[in-house]
Specification:
Elements lengths: L6 H14 L8 H8 L1 E2 L8 E2 L9 H5 L9 E5 L6 H14 L5 E5 L2 H17 L2 H6 L14 E4 L2 E7 L13 E5 L14 H8 L8 E6 L8 H8 L3 E6 L6 E3 L3 E3 L5 E3 L1 E4 L2 E8 L6 E2 L4 H4 L4 E4 L8 E5 L12 H16 L4 H9 L14 H5 L16 E8 L4 E8 L5 E9 L6 H11 L3 E2 L5 E2 L1 E7 L4 H10 L5 E7 L11 E2 L10 E6 H12 L9 E2 L2 H6 L3 H5 L2 E5 L5 E5 L7 H17 L54
Parallel strand pairs: 3-8, 3-17, 4-6, 4-7, 7-8, 9-17, 18-23, 20-27, 23-24, 24-26
Antiparallel strand pairs: 1-2, 5-6, 9-10, 9-16, 11-12, 13-14, 14-15, 18-19, 19-20, 21-22, 25-26, 28-29
């Protein structure tokens, strides 16, 4: 029953209530984004309204944005140019049109933030009538719009770079969209990671907030996107085999028992067009054109229960790219090029491929080596004569409580190296006999296949233990280039230009030694051990060394490279009980090599010599002359105080 005179007012109230109590749009974010997000030709190869039918693997991560979905943190680990940023643009279109609220969009730098605002956000707004209307002059707060700040009806978008901690520690937001997480700095001026700062900005909207983390990974054990993916349910996009129908995730290669890899994507060497995919169940070969039917039938499957409540995580690679974009054949071309470069010692292309195409974290060169993999490279011993490629012989010596251990290394063109021998002198280094044996080893004559005679051009002896004895020995035979060294865990020149001296004591003159940067040396050694083809940087390991010292490879691979929270790199034993003398002596050999470089010999500039078929008709190559006294020169007498190594004998 209506009251006379109030009919008009009641209608106004009804109209007002109808505007307030609008039922929420039941459609999913991917459906709504398909109506309002127009991809522009300036950044998309397929301009027009976004069509998720070609990228079905993007739908479920985006739909986690729906308010009825309990997910609060959505993690997407994927390759470059595969739709990760499209997910974030779609999220913005959904938020602006359907679930308005303040949004914080974070990328790694201020320059990239501005580029996203101009190229992506402004363009998608201008290309959509509804988005343009929501941010137009009639929208609340639109007069405050700038390049990096957009107000729309019911919310705002702040676009910032992760470098600016101050911009991440003010204002409250409901949504946090973090792009290319692994490119951000780990700690912003001591304030914490950008992810932590963004999460802190969302706490006011507890229970309503949503956070997107998307990125390609970078380095193993330092990747934020990998850490967050592992906190979630770690989903894979599985597709049916066109022959047996079994569901499986597409992988370039997969690890099997023992740490080896089996390639699922196979091809005839040198012919990328022959590429096909091997089903892990029926082992039938799948052609790439089958993706047209496989992808639409795909679905996300969790591989585990989430460690953190409310975290969903998704991982895919470039094998899922639709027909007409990045092809399997293109992946093969890039892989072969990266592998060829890696065999020459340049790992950059391989790292880029693994990060940006496979969306996998890269284990840094030298971080850790597998003993079994290294064992496959052991080569037959070369007999009584060493290879002609050896131009210079050096030695590195480690001093232990009851013995001396020494590696003899041959160095050739382009820093190709040969481990000529490994000797353990089982004699107390406090006694003179140990040093007599070491001196004899230093003076040993090595003969090449073409008849050249070589002796150790430089021998570096570790003075970290029994420093006084080592440095007196080095001083006595300094003219034969026996040098006392101390290893320090730091980066920089492996062999220093400046000589260090011991502290002056009453009645004793200071002794000289060189500080070796062991972190840099181990980085270089492990990098070279990963070179697979003989030539520059390659390390030759002969059978006789392994036969005489069965633990040699274990010692050589006994350490791994780690990085602390501040990014500082150090080397640590993989096991507290592991022996690492072989690695230490290799470090001192490398230092000896660089001491020769300091004298003007440049191994990098040498050209590898071609070995003639008939060596007897070819004169022996010239021996590199190292500035030192002749090897047969009589040694200097021992210090007048007597034998510091026991027994009262001279050297």
């Amino acid at each position: 029953m209506s009251h006379p005179g109030f009919d008009g007012q009641i209608e106004q109230v009804r109209a007002a209530l109808a505007g307030v109590f609008v039922p929420p749009d039941p459609r999913m974010p991917s459906e709504i984004a398909s109506e309002h997000l127009y991809l522009d030709s300036r950044y998309s190869a397929v301009p027009g309204l976004v069509d998720f039918r070609s990228h079905p693997f993007l739908v479920e991560p985006l739909d986690c944005l729906h308010p009825d979905d309990p997910t609060s943190i959505i993690v997407v680990q994927g390759p470059v140019q595969s739709g990760k940023t499209i997910i974030l643009q779609s999220a913005l279109a959904y938020i602006m049109t359907t679930q308005p609220g303040p949004v914080l969009y974070v990328t790694d730098t201020g320059e990239k933030a501005e580029a996203f605002a101009k190229t992506r956000l402004d363009t998608m707004i201008n290309n959509s009538p509804i988005l343009a209307l929501l941010t137009g002059k009639d929208a609340a707060g639109s007069k405050y719009n700038t390049v990096n700040h957009k107000a729309f009806k019911g919310g705002e978008i702040a676009i910032v770079g992760a470098q600016s901690a101050s911009k991440l520690t003010s204002t409250t937001y409901r949504y946090g969209l973090v792009d290319e997480v692994d490119d951000h700095r780990a700690d912003l001026s001591g304030s914490g990671s950008s992810i932590s700062l963004v999460r802190a900005r969302l706490t006011t909207y507890e229970g309503q907030n949503k956070m997107f983390l998307v990125s390609s990974p970078k380095v193993q054990d330092q990747s934020d996107i990998v850490t967050w993916r592992e906190r979630g349910d770690d989903c894979r996009f599985v597709v049916p085999c066109p022959f047996c129908g079994e569901l499986q995730a597409l992988v370039f290669r997969e690890q099997i028992e023992g740490g080896n890899h089996v390639f699922r994507l196979i091809w005839d060497p040198g012919d990328p067009s022959s590429v096909r995919y091997v089903c892990r169940y029926c082992e039938r070969e799948i052609e790439e054109n089958h993706k047209a039917t496989m992808l639409p039938e795909g679905a996300w499957r969790a591989t585990k229960s989430a460690n953190f409540k409310g975290v969903r995580s998704f991982w895919y690679n470039s094998l899922y790219m639709p027909l007409g974009s990045l092809s399997w054949a293109s992946l093969v071309v890039q892989w072969e090029g990266a592998v060829a470069a890696a065999r020459s010692g340049d790992q950059k292309e391989l790292k880029t491929f693994i990060n940006t195409r496979l969306a996998e974290p890269y284990r840094e060169i030298g971080e850790m080596l597998d003993t079994h993999t290294l064992a496959q490279r052991v080569e037959p011993s070369w007999g009584p004569y060493i290879p002609d490629g050896v131009k210079v012989v050096v030695m590195g010596v480690d001093v232990q409580e009851d013995r001396l251990e020494a590696m003899t290394l041959g160095i050739g063109a382009g820093w190709e190296t040969w481990i000529l021998g490994y000797d353990v002198i089982l004699s107390d280094p406090r006694m003179s006999d140990a040093w007599r044996q070491l001196l004899a080893l230093h003076r040993k004559v090595w003969i090449t296949e073409s008849g050249r005679e070589l002796r150790s051009a430089t021998t570096c002896v570790d003075a970290g233990f029994l420093m006084q004895q080592v440095l007196i020995f080095a001083k006595t035979y300094a003219r034969e280039r026996i040098l006392g060294v101390r290893g320090m865990a730091r980066t920089g020149p492996i062999f220093p230009k400046k000589v260090s001296k011991t502290k002056k004591k009453r009645g004793e003159a200071p002794l000289s030694f060189y500080v070796v940067a062991t972190t840099s040396a181990k980085n270089e050694i492990f990098s070279n051990l990963r070179v697979h083809s003989p030539g520059p940087l390659y390390v030759h390991i002969p059978e006789h060394v392994i036969d005489e010292h069965p633990t040699f490879l274990h010692q050589l691979t006994s350490e791994e490279r780690v990085r602390d929270k501040k990014g500082k790199i150090s080397w640590q034993k993989r096991s507290p009980s592991a022996r690492n003398e072989a690695l230490d002596t290799f470090v001192y050999c490398l230092a000896a090599g660089y001491s020769i470089v300091a004298e003007g010999v440049d191994f990098k500039e040498m050209l590898p010599e071609k070995v003639p078929e008939k060596k007897s008709l070819t004169p022996a190559p010239k021996t590199i002359r190292i500035p030192r006294a002749p090897a047969r020169q009589a040694p200097r007498p021992a210090p007048s105080r007597g034998d510091r190594y026991g027994g009262g004998h001279r050297w």
